[in-house]
Every structure is written in structure tokens, then in C-alpha cells.
Design a protein that fits this description.
Helix content is 72%, strand content 0%. It has 107 residues and is mostly helical. The two termini are 32 Å apart.
């Protein structure tokens, strides 16, 4: 359940560092990184669901899959849902904590 968390936070920190290097305000860079890290994890789960759909219903052919198959979040398994939720929550927590810290200090 914890596999996506370091990926999400890692992407977030890279975006934050890149944003700071480009003189973007701390909060903006941090929350943009939060979005990017969360998006990476969500897209991975969408792709994984697409492959599961192809194996189960598509006779092994991507052409048989409808375009929305990966977006059927209700068809994701519990592991995918929990892993994605933990990654998003972790990124949001980092953004909230650092934003609060940055409000008091100029970083």
C-alpha cells in the first residue's frame, strides 16, 4: 500500500525544487508538485486497470477496449484505491505542512 507514496512525494519535491529554481513562489511550486505527484499515481492506476480490462474482457487486444475502461474507478481493486489515496494524502500533507511553515518564514 505504500509503493506510490515515495513516488508521489518525490515528484512533488522535484517540482518544488524546479519551481524554486525558476523563482516560482514556494506555495505555488509546492502545490503544483502535489498535483503532479498525485497525477502520476492516478495515471499509473488508470493504466493498470486498462491492462486488467484487456486481459479480462478484451481477448488480449487493446483495440477491443473502450476508451473509458481505465476511468471506471468503481472497478479498481481495494489495493489500487488505497494506494492511490495514501499517495494523494501524503502529498497533500507535505504541501499543507510546508505551506504552513512557509507562511511563517520566507523560504
Amino acid at each position: 500500500m505504500w509503493n506510490h507514496l515515495p513516488v508521489s512525494i518525490g515528484v512533488q519535491l522535484v517540482c518544488w525544487a524546479l519551481g524554486r529554481w525558476l523563482a516560482v513562489p514556494t506555495r505555488g511550486a509546492l502545490w503544483l508538485g502535489c498535483f503532479a505527484g498525485s497525477a502520476v499515481c492516478i495515471m499509473r492506476e488508470i493504466t493498470q486497470r486498462e491492462y486488467q480490462w484487456i486481459e479480462q474482457f478484451g481477448a488480449g487486444r487493446r483495440a477491443n477496449m473502450p476508451g473509458y475502461a481505465g476511468l471506471e474507478v468503481w472497478a479498481w481493486n481495494a489495493h489500487s484505491l488505497s494506494e492511490t489515496a495514501v499517495a494523494i494524502a501524503g502529498s497533500v500533507l507535505v504541501a499543507l505542512v510546508v505551506s504552513h511553515y512557509a507562511a511563517d518564514r520566507e523560504i
